[in-house]
Specification:
345 residues, mainly alpha, two-stranded antiparallel sheet, 12 helices
Length: 345
């Protein structure tokens, strides 16, 4: 700027007088005045320099202030955004941990409930205080738990869904083992009812036997056939002449004479459970060639075991029933509706 003050030169401030015209006292006085002037000049120069700097800053300030204002706003916004993002991340992390903890607790509760149900079911064949109605409740309870848990796991893509599917299959295998090894179809009607209830109510049981375990299915079917043969050998007259199936009423029937016998109702229920369970399991045999061979062998054994045409026809249906002589000899008073050999003279 043109109006800036110029530094004062020392030579312009005070010209030195000739030394020969001044006395010693005057010289000292002059020197003192000179020093004071030098200090004043230095002070003025310092002030001039400050003014120059101030003028430069004042010329820059109008340009810098808007930039500084913008930078201040940007920094504030960025800081606020980072703080909000950090807060959101913390909240999300806390919510995730809380949700995971709730899921773990819920999973533990479900597992404990399933274990409790399975343990009680496993005691059924040994504990006579257990009832069929209680068994049905336990199986239905497990079905509901598994259905809800698997469905929720699929909707949330939770890996626990597969874990529960695996647990469901392990329960199925355990139930199949219990039916094969721990039940007595010949002596205990409640054991037959146990197997029937599992077959009807436990959803994975049929899938497991139908798709993967044909040999095991045949073993279970043979348990039914063997028990029917066992009961018939001890109650041939009942099977051959008194037990029948009424197409009109769609129900089993027995003669009036037989109904009056002591223990007939127990025998009737035992046979009924065996027939119903056999039919339920026979329907699980698939239509492939190997399975059809098994089905044919099983049907022949069943017809021989019951040796009762009306009952066998009801269980097997028109497509699979073929009336033929029974292999096992029966009493000579067989009626004409039975699949048994005619008595020889």
């Amino acid at each position: 700027m043109n109006d800036e003050p110029k530094p004062i030169e020392e030579s312009d401030a005070h010209p030195a007088p000739p030394q020969d015209l001044l006395s010693s006292e005057q010289t000292d006085k002059v020197n003192l005045e000179t020093e004071k002037l030098d200090l004043e000049i230095e002070k003025l120069n310092h002030e001039i320099e400050n003014l120059r700097k101030k003028n430069k800053w004042e010329s820059i300030t109008p340009l810098v202030l808007p930039i500084l204002s913008v930078l201040t706003v940007v920094v504030s916004v960025v800081g606020l955004g980072l703080g909000f993002r950090q807060f959101q991340d913390q909240q999300s992390s806390l919510q995730t941990r809380a949700r995971e903890e709730r899921e773990r607790e819920r999973t533990r509760q479900i597992q404990n409930q399933l274990r409790s149900d399975v343990d009680e079911i496993s005691r059924f064949t040994q504990d006579k205080t257990e009832t069929i109605s209680r068994l049905s409740f336990l199986v239905d309870d497990m079905n509901i738990i598994m259905s809800v848990t698997v469905a929720e796991g699929q909707s949330t893509q939770d890996q626990s869904s597969e874990a529960f599917r695996s647990y469901e299959r392990s329960v199925t295998k355990s139930l199949v083992e219990q039916i094969v090894n721990d039940t007595d179809f010949m002596q205990k009607a409640r054991d037959v009812s146990f197997a029937n209830t599992i077959s009807k109510n436990w959803r994975d049981y049929q899938n497991y036997l139908e798709k993967e375990q044909l040999e095991t299915l045949e073993v279970i079917l043979y348990k039914y056939v063997r028990a029917l043969r066992y009961l018939r050998e001890r109650n041939e007259s009942y099977f051959n002449n008194q037990l029948s199936y009424d197409e009109k009423t769609q129900s089993y029937s027995v003669s009036n004479v037989s109904e009056k016998k002591e223990g007939e109702e127990i025998l009737y229920q035992h046979i009924k459970y065996l027939l119903e369970g056999f039919k339920e399991h026979l329907n699980l045999i698939s239509a492939d060639q190997k399975a059809l061979v098994t089905k044919k062998r099983t049907i022949d054994a069943f017809v021989d075991a019951v040796c009762n045409a009306r009952v066998a026809k009801h269980i097997l249906g028109e497509a699979d029933f073929v009336c033929r002589p029974c292999i096992t000899p029966v009493l000579p008073e067989c009626s004409g509706v039975l699949c048994c050999p005619k008595p020889t003279k």
